[in-house]
Amino acid sequence: MIESSVMPARLEAFLAEHAGQRATVTGYEPMSGGYSRLMALATIQWADGSTEKMVLRGDPPPGKSMMDTDRATEWGLLSALGRADSIPMPAARYFDPTGDRLGTKCIVLDFVEGRSLQSHLNDCTDGNFGRHTFDLVDTMARVHSIDPNDVGDAIARPTDWESYISGLIDRFRQADRAHVESNPFLRYVAEWLDANKPAPLPLRIVHSDFQPANIMVTPDGSHRVIDWELTHIGDPREDLGYYAVYSASSGPSLIMSDPLAFLARYRERTGFGEDTINLGTLAYFSSLAAISVYAQILGGAAAMSRGLNSGIMTTYTINALTIGHANFMSACLAPSN
Amino acid sequence: MLSKPTTQQIILDCRRELLETIDPAVTDPAVKVAIQMLENVLRNCAERAAHEIAWMREESDLMMAFARDVRDALGSSTSLDAAIAAHQSGDNETLDLDAVSDSYGRAGECFSEALESVFAAGHDQLHLRGREILALRLAHEDAIKGDWGFVGRG
User: Fold this and answer.
1) How far apart are CA A198 and CA A281, in angstroms?
2) Which residues from chain B sit within 8 angstroms of residue A326, using beta carbons?
3) What's this model's pTM, rounded to 2 decimal places?
4) Rounded CA gap, B1 and B143, in Å?
5) What value does the mean pLDDT of chain A take?
6) Which residue among B128, B134, B145 sits closest to A329, beta carbon to beta carbon?
């Protein structure tokens, strides 16, 4: 999918098959910035004379992926969110479910003009993030305000909060069992989380990799959320916790400079109460929410250990597991505290 | 064997070569990012090469002592007894890296089982001691990690 010498012809044939008119690919280049999937930017000239840019998002070659997620599930989710007009996002246009046409299972999306929010934040100086902090909160709240019915059966729907959270906690134990060596952090955290469950919230759409690199800012300043591959229905505080952890290790963090103001804005935008959205639940979910990405990275490390995976992305991201361990230990308070 | 320069020194010299010779000659942004990642992984490997056997042995001793003390204080459990027996029946002497790593994994399982027993019993003193061992493990991981962030994202 990243071979610029062969992809234009492949994409032209694919688009002719799916779009109902001939297309000429006038530009094709791999995109950097994403970790889990291959990305490329294509410039298309249609037979009717119009032009547009599209993004191709596909699976890396077998054995080269730092995490395994399902493109068909992602396509179903993106299509459902698009049909329901749930939230501003780049439209998912076409899908090669087998890789026969585009070289790998691949989703073709609209290109979003603009830069990522991470790129904007990198330009900010002296901790002055202007409107970006509340814009980020508002976008998170919009994700959590999506009606779960919008996605139909594209992703699984848990039956109730209690069993969902228990299952999520158990994923720590499952990750430990599936790994190539014992990891006492996982067993410790699972026990702690079981013993300290917070008050419940309604189950909602959870992006699961909510961070500024996955938010595109258009020229008018509005947000488009991208990279929905880990999205599921769960507790919306998972995204709050995940963002807190992620931004602490890959800043700048828009939450840690004034977490109370951040949480107050989130409560205002979602209607959730202070009994469920507070510093305590932020800490709790910063541990709990990390398991989705953590387990994927750990799985990649295990596959490498077994000789089933390779690549710099896998070895490099092993360091993120240590970030996770540090977060677990700071969030899971000792009994004397 | 030639033990000096040490493995740590050799790896760090490879890192220097990567940064000073290879990186300036590269213009492809994706390869630039890969070089930044390689630089980080080489630092990780250098630190591990210098300390990992000693660190795993140190932690293993602490984890096994904890597991036995938990069994003595809170009583036997099938799973903790089985984990301790599995550790004892394995090779805990050989200093080849694979053997030390396997032994460390068995000790970690004993430790995990012991932590679960401590939670079930609500034993705060043992809980705090378990956290101290986790803190040491984390300190070693942190030393290996060094400075780290998601390079190339955005």
Assistant:
1) 7
2) 138, 142
3) 0.84
4) 27
5) 92
6) B134
B-chain CB neighbours of A325 within 8 Å are 137-138, 141
Report the distance separating Cα A289 and Cα A91, nearest Å. 27
**Cβ neighbourhood burial of A330 (10 Å; 0-12, 13-18, 19+):** middle
Q: How far apart are CA A166 and CA A18, in angstroms?
A: 43
Residue A322 touches partner B, C-beta closer than 8 Å: yes
Report pLDDT digits (tens) over A287-298: 998 888 899 899
Give chain A positions within 8 Å (CB) of B129: none
Instruction: Compare CB distances from A335 to B40, B104, B124 and report the shortest one's residue.
Output: B124
Closest to B119 in 3D by CA, of A68, A273, A191: A191
What is the C-alpha separation between A91 and A95, in angstroms, rounded? 12
pLDDT for residue A316: 93
Tokens 């992305």 locate to A313
A42's CB contacts (< 8 A; 6+ apart) are A7, A8, A11, A25, A27, A28, A53, A54, A55, A56
Whether the ipTM is more than 0.85: the answer is yes
Q: Indicate whether A62 pLDDT > 80.
A: no
CA–CA–CA angle B100, B105, B111 (5° rounding): 125
Find the CB nearest B150 among A188, A250, A312.
A250
Answer yes or no: are the C-beta atoms of B153 and A317 closer than 8 Å: no
pLDDT at A309: 87
Interface contact A316-B41, CB threshold 8 A:
yes
User: Judging by beta carbons within 10 Å of its beta carbon (0-12, 13-18, 19+), is residue A73 exposed, middle or buried?
Assistant: middle
B17 phi/psi in degrees, rounded to 5: -60, -40
Structure tokens at A311: 């690549």
pLDDT of residue A35: 67
Distance CA A207, CA B147 (A): 28
What residue in A sits closest to B108 (Cα-Cα)? Answer: A182
Virtual torsion, Cα B19, B20, B22, B23, nearest 10 deg = 50
Q: Would you call B127 and A191 a contact, using CB atoms and an 8 Å cutoff?
A: no
Residues 30-49, chain A, touching B (beta carbon < 8 A): 30, 32-35
Residue A223 pairs with which residues in a beta bridge?
A217
Question: Each residue of A184-199: pLDDT tens digit?
Answer: 999 999 999 999 999 9
Instruction: Enumerate chain B positions whose Cβ falls within 8 A of a Cβ in A.
Output: 29-30, 33-34, 37-38, 40-41, 44, 63, 101, 104-106, 108-109, 111-112, 115-116, 119, 124, 127-128, 130-131, 133-135, 137-138, 141-142, 144-145, 148-150, 152-154
